[in-house]
Amino acid sequence: MPKRKSEGIFNFNEQVEEKRKPNKKRTKTAHKNNKNNKAEEHFIGTKELPPINKKRIEKIKKEKIKEKKTKEKEIAKLEKKQAKLRKKRKNNLKKAKLTEKQIKRNKKIKFFIKMLILLLVLLGLFVYLMLSPIFNIKNINVEGNSKISTEQIISISGIKKDVNMFKISNRDTKNAIKQNPYIDKVEIKRKIPDTISIVVTERQASFMLEHGSSFAYIDSQGYILEISAETLENKIKINGYKTEEENITPGKRLCEEDLERLNDVLKIISAAENVGIENLITSINVENKYEYSLYLDSEQKTVYIGDSTNLDTKMLYVKVILEKEKENAGEIFVNMDLNQKNPFFREKV
């Protein structure tokens, strides 16, 4: 007798058994599908491809060729446009260069016009200064003179009052004033509106040359300043010079040989100053540059110093001998090689 299902009670064993039973409908359907799939697979693997559509291919080729030509045209247009731009830039650069040249030329023209205007202004100012009575000379001043009088300098300068100061030539005025042997340097100053100042530097007489029965005054540079019958106080006489008598003229200079010996005289005076006996020297004989001799009038002594070497040592010996032989007239000899011989004094008999 079959067991009845208990209503409302879940039977797990029955459910499992039902699942285990094969489903005939599902099995048949699956088998049918497998057959169909195998048939389709067999059909796909064996069937031929459809025929090629040549018109479509040609159309595609034409389209590609057309696209290529279109691109080439676009590239050509672009290149042409770029070429035009390059040409335009080049033209612009040329125009810019032309503009720079024009600017430079305009600047030169403007500069020339300015200079021309300035020149015209200066010319007008010059004409005004030359013609205006405002600048007529009312005062002439002289500075730096002691030997030459103010009146004498004004006279030789050629400057006159009531003459326009800008008509005065500085060069001509200086040359005129320098004709006086005592004048070494000249400077002309204009003081607006009516004053001229003449600033001079005078030469100073340093030595005397015996010139016949008179004396020629010279400065330390060998310029002959004046010929006079009077001697200059405390000025050394130079004897034995080589300059020709006709050249002993105020304004001229001693010859080259005498200028060299004058330079030695200055060294001798400097060495004598170092030991304090320069004021005792009355005259110097320069006839032989290897045998210079000094005469000391107040000491009644002649000093033979030889050439112009080792002067400081020679003057020291002279000073010592002068102090030792103060009361005796005679000659002092320091014109030897002091390393081998000693200086000596020879009394006048």
Question: How do you describe this structure in short?
Answer:
It contains 7 helices and 12 strands. It has 349 residues and is α/β, with parallel strands linked by helices. It is elongated, with a radius of gyration of 64 Å.
Structure explained in plain terms:
The chain has 349 residues and is an alpha/beta fold. The protein contains seven helices and twelve strands. The chain has helices at 12-20, 24-46, 54-131, 150-157, 170-177, 256-275, 311-324, and strands spanning 139-143, 183-191, 195-202, 207-211, 214-218, 224-228, 236-239, 283-285, 292-296, 301-306, 330-333, 344-347. The longest helix is centred in the first third of the chain and has 78 residues, at 54-131. The radius of gyration is 64 Å and the shape is elongated. Residues 1-13 and 37-47 have low confidence and may be disordered.
Keywords:
about 350 residues; alpha/beta; Ubiquitin-like (UB roll); three-stranded mixed beta sheet; elongated
Secondary-structure-derived class: alpha/beta
Query: pLDDT under 50 segments (min length 5)?
Result: 1-13, 37-47
How much helix, percentage-wise, in residues? Answer: 40-55%
β-sheet strand percentage: 15-25%
Number of helices: 7
Number of domains: 3
Q: How many angstroms does the end-to-end distance come to?
A: 205 Å
What is the number of beta strands? 12
The quaternary state of the protein chains shown equals single chain
Q: Give the strand order of the largest sheet, numbering strands 1, 2, ... along the chain.
A: 6-5-4-7-8-9-10-11-12
- The dominant shape is elongated
Mean pLDDT: 84
